[in-house]
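Q: what sequence does this backbone want?
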């Protein structure tokens, strides 16, 4: 039986052959993890038809044996640089045309590598592994489901424990602690909890002011599983009776999201899904207040392929998992964003986060 990493490496080899290189030097940390199960850093994988070797250092010797049994590894000495150890492995494998991750390696690293393997032609091969990572296998989908479940349970605890004295930061800690108690490794990214007008700031960091008598909180959060798969959700928590304006904006955003999700199925381009949400928001005269893409893939990284955005021509395929997160942001007033995690299935889609209610009524807290 081939294990999941072997079958992933097989896919990369087939993709690389099409790119006219015989061997790929994988330097992206998450790409290495996806292909080997190794969870450390500063390690590269040389992968070709004749070679599969992880180039790492002494700190990781035991970890490699545990995480990747059977995988060849070169443990470089402290005085040997990573690119030097990689060059030696390239020479030993007799590689003629080496693909490298030009979107990730630094210019210096490429130059040093090229100088160390003069007999080998270096060719940029950007995004090869990421393209394959976009389509999740059954294990990965189960992991993302678990990450969504952890986020959902954490959010229930947060809602039940909110008090006027609590600060945004305190609320974020409450949510994160709850997710960890339920078994999360940590958060997918720094939790955003923003009250009222602060919710118009896209990358707001929770502050130390009491929530007090704010009208609503925007909560954008996610949990990471033991195996590092992530979820990413956004909900509003509304205190008391929502204003007319909040109701109006919320309805527009929810309708934009509902329409976009409805369109998700294999064969549809990412830009088409983005356009559906964007057109609805535009038709409600808020086009200028939706200044980001509609969504992104999630997996081992919080932002993966594909991107749901204007000009993103990627075609959706079964197994992709994307966020759908339209928003309207009015400086000085606040922002509304609703975000769910959606699996593309053969027949259409499945909203993985549907257990986290999102109609305005269920966002209310007394
Ligand atoms: Zn988010
Ligand atoms: Zn997101």
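A:
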């Amino acid at each position: 039986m081939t294990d999941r990493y072997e079958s992933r490496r097989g896919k990369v080899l087939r993709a690389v052959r099409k790119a006219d290189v015989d061997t790929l030097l994988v330097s992206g940390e998450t790409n290495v993890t996806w292909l080997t199960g190794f969870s450390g850093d500063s390690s590269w994988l040389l992968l070709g038809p004749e070679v599969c070797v992880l180039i790492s250092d002494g700190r990781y010797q035991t970890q490699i044996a545990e995480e990747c049994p059977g995988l060849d590894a070169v443990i470089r000495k402290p005085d040997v640089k990573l690119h030097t150890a990689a060059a030696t492995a390239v020479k030993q494998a007799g590689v003629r045309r080496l693909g490298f991750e030009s979107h990730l390696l630094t210019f210096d690293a490429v130059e040093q590598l090229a100088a160390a393997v003069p007999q080998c032609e270096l060719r940029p091969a950007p995004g090869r592994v990421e393209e394959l990572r976009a389509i999740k296998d059954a294990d990965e989908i189960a992991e993302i489901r678990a990450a969504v479940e952890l986020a959902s349970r954490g959010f229930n605890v947060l809602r039940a424990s909110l008090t006027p004295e609590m600060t945004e930061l305190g609320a974020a800690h409450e949510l994160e602690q709850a997710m960890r108690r339920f078994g999360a490794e940590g958060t997918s990214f720094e939790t955003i909890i923003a009250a009222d007008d602060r919710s118009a700031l896209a990358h707001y960091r929770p502050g130390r002011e009491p929530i007090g008598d704010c009208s609503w909180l925007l909560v954008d959060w996610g949990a990471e599983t033991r195996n590092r798969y992530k979820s990413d959700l956004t909900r509003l928590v509304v205190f008391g009776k929502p204003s007319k304006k909040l109701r109006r904006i919320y309805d527009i955003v929810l309708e934009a999201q509902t329409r976009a999700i409805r369109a998700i199925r294999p064969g549809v381009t990412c830009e088409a899904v983005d356009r559906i949400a964007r057109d609805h928001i535009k038709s409600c005269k808020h086009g200028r207040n939706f200044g980001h893409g509609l969504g992104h893939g999630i997996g081992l990284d919080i932002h993966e392929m594909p991107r749901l955005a204007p000009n993103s021509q990627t075609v959706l395929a079964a197994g992709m998992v994307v966020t759908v997160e339209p928003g309207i942001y009015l400086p000085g007033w606040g922002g509304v964003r609703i975000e769910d995690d959606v699996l593309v299935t053969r027949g259409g889609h499945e909203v993985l986060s549907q257990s986290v209610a999102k109609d305005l009524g269920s966002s209310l807290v007394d």
